[in-house]
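Exercise: predict the structure of this protein bound to farnesyl diphosphate.
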Amino acid sequence: MLTPLNLQRTPRHVAIIMDGNGRWARARWLPRAAGHRAGVQVLTPLLETAGELGVETLTLYAFSTENWTRPETEVSTLMSLFLETARGKVPDLNERGARLRFVGRRENLPESVRAAIREAEMLTAANDKLDVYIALNYGGRSEIVDAARRMISAGLDPEDVNEETFARYLYAPEAPEVDLVIRTSGELRVSNFLLWQIAYAEFYVTDTLWPDFSAQEFRRAIESFSARSRRRGGV
Ligand code: FPP
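Solution:
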């Protein structure tokens, strides 16, 4: 274990855009799938470190609503990898006390993936050490549209719709607001990730490609957050 950081404030909720798997693979003359596989290896040290540092909630962007436009072979490789990862890692995550949940439009995912999601959520439902949300077939705009649809179906009076009631119809209303967004591979974009939840989030962008993202760099990101003063529109 590394030395504990002197943190003034730990972010409660960290959301991560895991980008750069393809470039990592290309730099090694490997197929893109090898980059995604290497990306999965980062998850265990990341979750361990999150627990050590006192982060309560992590959201990981695994597959966006836009990712369906990738070549069919890559999409099916990713779906197989999600299944394989669920089989290989969920028991371990469960033992470590992580509660897994998935956010996104499930209806378009293959039935095998939906079944793995249901199983992982059921198995880990009672855990309370760390909440881990996997964004799968997720889009921030879709989430807002889905929330509006559900609100209308529930027959809410327009007078009763405010930010608080709206937030109750999002995919994970129980999750605290996002404090810190980390994006790897140097892109300065939000890419339709948690549009509602990141309203006041701090950003940490690193050039490191996702498969090279280490526990140490995760600690640096948390440290950087801890040193900032958040004004939320005030002075
Ligand atoms: C972005 O790299 C990464 C993805 C679209 C998939 C992320 C998935 C994983 C890391 C593995 C599974 C994770 C979980 C939580 C099960 P990219 O392909 O966009 O890279 P590029 O921009 O360099 O092409």
